[in-house]
Automatic annotation (TrEMBL):
Keyword entries, A-Z: Pyridoxal phosphate
One MF term in the entry's GO annotations: L-allo-threonine aldolase activity
Record PANTHER family: L-THREONINE ALDOLASE, L-THREONINE ALDOLASE-RELATED
Organism this protein belongs to: Kitasatospora cineracea
Signal peptide location: none
UniProt protein name: L-threonine aldolase
Family to which this protein belongs: Belongs to the threonine aldolase family.
Residues covered by the Aromatic amino acid beta-eliminating lyase/threonine aldolase domain: 57-296
Gene Ontology CC: cytosol
Cofactor(s) needed for function: pyridoxal 5'-phosphate
GO biological process, alphabetically ordered: glycine biosynthetic process; L-threonine catabolic process
Amino acid sequence: MNDTPVQDRRFRARRQAGRLLSGGRPQTVREALADLAGLADGPLTPDEPVDMYGNGIVRTLERRTAELLGKPDAAYFPTGTMAQQAALKTWADTHGPVVGMHPLAHPERHERRAHQVLSGLRSVPLTGAPRLPTAAELAVLDEPYDVLMLELPLRDAGFLLPDWAELEALYDLAERQGRPVHLDGARLWESAPHLGRTLPEVCARAGSVYVSCYKSLGGHSGALVAGEEEFVRRLRVWRHRYGGNLWQQWPAVLSALAGLDRELPRLPGYVAHAKVVAAALAEAPGARVHPAPPHTHQFQFWLPHPAELLDEAGLRQAEEQGVALFGGWREPGPQPGLSMTEVTVAADAAGWSAKEVTAALQDFLALL
């Protein structure tokens, strides 16, 4: 059940809309159960017992993910927050408890600083700029750290990625300094097109890689951390200590496997189409797309209007015209009335042409 009347209204408005531009159509529990049941007769579910404490279908997902990322093994976690903590804590056992990360990184902004409060780790800010740090910045950083964490892409800075040369320079520096690299790759799946390399190439020099099962793949929940076999063996110890060794996890794991089959091959197309959508949105008066062009299939879209008015216009357009362009808006900066929404170009946006995006945005702005 939704928490507020506004959330309930948004749920109903997006469900009844005939066309959606950003994100996907929300589901009822009945619909989600029907989708899950529909996987029972597919190729993903061999006639075997359900998993118990991480065997069976869980190991199938772990092995498949490790192969996709070019790593020997992987461990499944019920949440990404737990996965991040376990990975960093495992590195702390062998290298030290100080983690170099961006101030906008997910553990700092969206995990209630659990790495510090629960895990006894300490973070060092790598740069104050709203982008990934450069190797030159880290080479002269005067505060020591033990593990280098890179969020690819850096979500709160606009889903930003470095270019390949910049990433290689960061790997080179970490190698010279003897520091392992942990990739916060919750959205790594869609990063390969911008970097111009395969996922195994992107991950080859990282000691550990965290990926989400639902942020881009559309699974119900869960995450994985991939790495060398000895690292993953130690990682599973911390998974147990943090309470992640669940009795059964097959529904979430099954949906993640379906995501690898269905969504992973589509992501390059989403990334390409995001550039078309972003360019059309940027034509609106006072609008700004960041980054331009987008690095992945997600980007920030800014308009010079109060968030409350933009939210109401979006709900009215969905209810009255059957068109849902955006999710929620917020005013994150110091300038009142300058609002931002995050746009996710996925399956529902695939049929939108640039002209259709422009026309729908004009209708949206007319409702302000």
